Amino acid sequence: MMKQTRIPSDTLNRIALLAGLAFLLSAVEYTIPKPLPFIRLGLANFPILIALTCFSPPQVLLLVVLKILGQGLIQGTLFSYTFLLSASGSFSSALVMIFLYRWGGKRISLIGVSIAGALVSNLIQIYLAGFLIAGAAVALIGPPFLIIGLVSSVFLGILAQRFVQTSRWVKNVQHMDGTAE
User: For the domain with range 9-34+41-177, which CATH number is right: 3.30.70, 1.10.1760, 2.60.40, 1.10.12?
Assistant: First the structure.
């Protein structure tokens, strides 16, 4: 039988705060005009990048689940193929980012982690879109999708790196949860 680990309530509160920030950023992003309807900037990934520095991998994954559900509710895509693409991209991205952050050590910054996460997310979504929806036409949407993902992931990575370096909140959470670097 698996041992269940209880997450302390103060940690859950901090995860909920980051989930709320992800919801807010998702709502803001939803209002930004897009050149193509399926392209997103990934603003809601900013809290995920912060969480990598503060929480354990299972706690980061909990935040990712909350982010995915929140985005699905905010954008009205819950139980749609768009939700499936988003969830697949988010989970694959989170797994890669957790791996790189935990085992990449000081060799990779949050900028690199963000870029790798966006690349994996976009590639998974392009593959699934081609398989489920667009077929060979996915070759037309792939390049702009990847370019926008690269640019926005660099931007988000820079913001997250600066935030983590300067935020008292992050330092406090790292100290309280024992994840200080």
Answer: 1.10.1760
